[in-house]
């Protein structure tokens, strides 16, 4: 049992404790190790609470994915809402290092979906949510009409987070993110120049 799970769970906090425990178990041991008993032990609650809140293992995993996705979107500033290139994914390095378990959980689910086709809709939804957030922020920046850019930019960010998990080097990741910001600035300038020329 982890140090975190040895703390008493406050009344009403069981659901969140189970979601956090699921993320830790998957990050540490893989998706195949998730059982009601293992997750309950990690959370410091009775295993009946897993069934009470989620019904079954698949629902628990789906809810844990939604939970970690929301947390990732909030902490990464993938969609800052400002339309500023400097704000776009500004805290990605911090998110990747401070929530490594949350990121590992997502990658474990992605890899497991290759072996378990029933997980593919969850993974497709995960990626679509991230691409949608990227697409909206790129539109605010002024890059709405560049086909495939949202996918390319998100794939770059996704790869940076994956590499940070496998071979941590926050300075290298920040340097890559700065380079991406420079590329987006150049793309914005080019788009603006093309738009100005077409109005003449």
Automatic annotation (TrEMBL):
<dbReference type="Pfam" id="PF17940">
    <property type="entry name" value="TetR_C_31"/>
</dbReference>
<dbReference type="GO" id="GO:0000976">
    <property type="term" value="F:transcription cis-regulatory region binding"/>
</dbReference>
<dbReference type="InterPro" id="IPR009057">
    <property type="entry name" value="Homeodomain-like_sf"/>
</dbReference>
<dbReference type="GO" id="GO:0003700">
    <property type="term" value="F:DNA-binding transcription factor activity"/>
</dbReference>
<keyword id="KW-0805">Transcription regulation</keyword>
<dbReference type="InterPro" id="IPR041583">
    <property type="entry name" value="TetR_C_31"/>
</dbReference>
<feature type="DNA-binding region" description="H-T-H motif">
    <location>
        <begin position="35"/>
        <end position="54"/>
    </location>
</feature>
<dbReference type="InterPro" id="IPR050109">
    <property type="entry name" value="HTH-type_TetR-like_transc_reg"/>
</dbReference>
<feature type="domain" description="HTH tetR-type">
    <location>
        <begin position="12"/>
        <end position="72"/>
    </location>
</feature>
<keyword id="KW-0804">Transcription</keyword>
<keyword id="KW-0238">DNA-binding</keyword>
<dbReference type="InterPro" id="IPR036271">
    <property type="entry name" value="Tet_transcr_reg_TetR-rel_C_sf"/>
</dbReference>
<dbReference type="InterPro" id="IPR001647">
    <property type="entry name" value="HTH_TetR"/>
</dbReference>
<protein>
    <submittedName>
        <fullName>AcrR family transcriptional regulator</fullName>
    </submittedName>
</protein>
<dbReference type="Pfam" id="PF00440">
    <property type="entry name" value="TetR_N"/>
</dbReference>
């Amino acid at each position: 049992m982890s140090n975190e799970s040895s703390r008493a769970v406050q009344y009403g906090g069981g659901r969140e404790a189970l979601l956090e425990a699921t993320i830790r178990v998957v990050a540490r041991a893989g998706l195949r190790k998730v059982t009601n008993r293992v997750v309950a032990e990690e959370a410091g609650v009775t295993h009946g609470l897993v069934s009470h809140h989620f019904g079954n293992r698949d629902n628990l995993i789906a809810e844990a994915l939604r939970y970690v996705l929301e947390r990732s979107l909030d902490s990464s500033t993938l969609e800052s809402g400002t339309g500023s290139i400097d704000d776009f994914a500004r805290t990605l390095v911090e998110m990747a290092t401070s929530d490594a378990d949350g990121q590992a959980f997502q990658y474990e689910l992605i890899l497991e979906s290759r072996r378990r086709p029933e997980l593919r809709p969850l993974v497709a939804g995960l990626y679509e949510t991230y691409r949608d957030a990227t697409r909206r922020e790129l539109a605010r920046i002024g890059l709405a009409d560049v086909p495939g850019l949202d996918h390319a930019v998100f794939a770059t960010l996704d790869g940076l987070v994956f590499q940070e998990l496998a071979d941590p080097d926050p300075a290298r990741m920040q340097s890559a993110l700065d380079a991406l910001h420079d590329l987006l600035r150049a793309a914005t300038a080019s788009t603006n120049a093309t738009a100005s020329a077409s109005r003449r």
